[in-house]
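Each field is listed here:
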Amino acid sequence: MKILIVGSGGREHAIAWKVAQSPKVDKIYCAPGNAGISEYAECVDIGAMEFDKLVAFAKEKQIDLTVVGMDDPLVGGIVDVFEAEGLRVFGPRKNAAILEGSKAFSKDLMKKYDIPTAVYENFDDPQKALEYLETADMPIVLKADGLALGKGVLICNTLEEAREGVQSIMMDKKFGTAGNKMVIEEFMTGREVSVLSFVDGKNIRIMTSSQDHKRAMDGDQGLNTGGMGTFSPSPFYTDEVDEFCKKYIYQKTVDAMAAEGREFKGVIFFGLMLTPKGPKVLEYNARFGDPETQVVLPRMKNDIVDVFEACVDGTLDQINLEFEDNAAVCVVLASDGYPVKYEKGFPIHGLEHFKGCKDKFVFHAGSKLKDGQIVTNGGRVLGVTALGSTLKEARANAYKAVELVDFDNKYYRHDIGKAIDEV
């Protein structure tokens, strides 16, 4: 098979790494890819939103399956464009990707189908949002309706902060058109857990649990980022939580989308909050998480191409999804100053230490080849992932692995997975 992967981040590198392990696959392309992905795939200089060029490339190279990693092309309708040309593609169509593309839509869906989530209101008028805040309890959560690179959520502790948040999202358009509408919801307390799943329109198969660390600095301080590190599995995702979610959240979401005429095929990412009143949905994503993928796929036993094809063909009920009885921790190495302002173009050293390793991996998020040297090319540069028999062992291994790779401006959190010490 020939596979095309669309995207350029750490998530796509992890997907390419996993696809490369399939005996079914002869050739992998990635558009646009990055320096790390080029180890497994031929990188193609086509942007993720250049649908016509991607279709032409897929036809020219006789691609058997295209895998879309990123949210923007999915929400923009890349799957519809490929399907219209008779091409096989893994991911939700535009009318299903709205599950992530509009937080207002997903909240209304949960309310309509009685899927547990926070109490909320939707607003498209900033003045009405400000009036609502006058009667609301603090802290409170403000969410830009559309895609905002994982940064469009503000947790406001005071009324003044909340007013500034409305100004920032809806009036100053900090997140562009993503802020044309806004969700205001109650602040929930508890543990956050990320659960990825494969979906074929009817059936759902749950992957192993994981947990992201969104804040830029140690102790969950600083600005929200795309994710500074992850661990898997989450010790807080117990059998009881799993049973509850299977009964009240997972299949109900798949069925709700089907009932709305929005059949979902691809990956649904369930962002959960384990509240004192039980698990509730924080958010949905319509694709693999980043950096969750970097700890989930290294633990997955299945040939991922088999799973992709089952989702496309509607035969996921025939797949028994299996994961190793181990643990993984990923520490993101970022450019100092991320997510606001940072320099790039610094040479990356030490990558040779990861060649051929079975228990530690480096997934590139923001890198490129320049004059034969791999250099930094983004805010999040690398995701260093290590395995272990326990979470504590995986965490120790990950931080040892972090010391093996270096670049100017290297910055990372020192407390990824620290929550496991409390178990």
